[in-house]
Amino acid sequence: MGGRVDSAQMALMMRTDSANSAWLKVYVDRWGWPTSHQVGRENVEAAFLIVQHAVHDTTFMRAMLPAIEQAYRRGDLKGGEVAMLTDRLEVKAGRPQIYGTQLSLKEGRWVLDPLVDSANVDSRRQQMGLPPLAEYLRLVDSVFRSP
Predict the structure, then answer these.
(1) How far apart are CA 32 and CA 28, in angstroms?
(2) How would you class 30 by CB atoms within 10 Å of its CB: exposed for 0-12, middle for 13-18, buried for 19 or more?
(3) Is residue 16 part of a domain?
(4) Phi first, then psi: what are they for 100, rounded to 5°?
């Protein structure tokens, strides 16, 4: 997981993410955000991942956030998924993240992106079903050691 991604792999991932988000836009326009009752929980989670990876289209990501929050309240998604999308949107907008889910690779190490109100982050994380920030950062460090 800590390996390097070459430019051909990156281009393929970007094309795939773009195609997936284009497909999901059409789906949502026609039928609305999917529910687990309609398509199964795995497919709702897959739709979330399409949105989370649509970094080329933050307007789409932001437009889907209310539906994703509703899916969480309905029990179709986990709170951590809402937290990840919320944080990604904040970071992309140049603002500090809320839940501490987003990191950037800097000088070969994964570094937590700026965080708002760090003293209370673990309380916010707990509300969304996430582990304490220190535990999350230890996990990231052990899994995503960069070369």
Answers:
(1) 4
(2) exposed
(3) yes
(4) 75, 45
| Under 8 Å between Cβ of 40 and 69 | no
pLDDT, tens digit, 9 for 90 and up, residues 71-110: 999 999 999 999 999 999 999 999 999 999 999 988 878 8
The one-letter amino acid at 19: A
Measured N-to-C along each axis, helices 58-74 and 79-92 cross at an angle, to the nearest 10 degrees, of: 160
Query: Which pair of tokens denotes residue 110?
Result: 């994964």
Integer Cα distance of 27 and 12 in angstroms: 23
Residue for token pair 């950062």: 137
As given in the structure block, the two tokens for residue 77 are 């998604």
Structure tokens at 40: 């199964």
Which 3 state secondary structure label does DSSP give 56?
A: coil
For residue 141, the enclosing domain spans: 96-147
The Cα–Cα gap between 54 and 119 comes to 30
13 — pLDDT class (breaks 50, 70, 90): confident
The answer to whether residues 110 and 67 belong to one domain is no
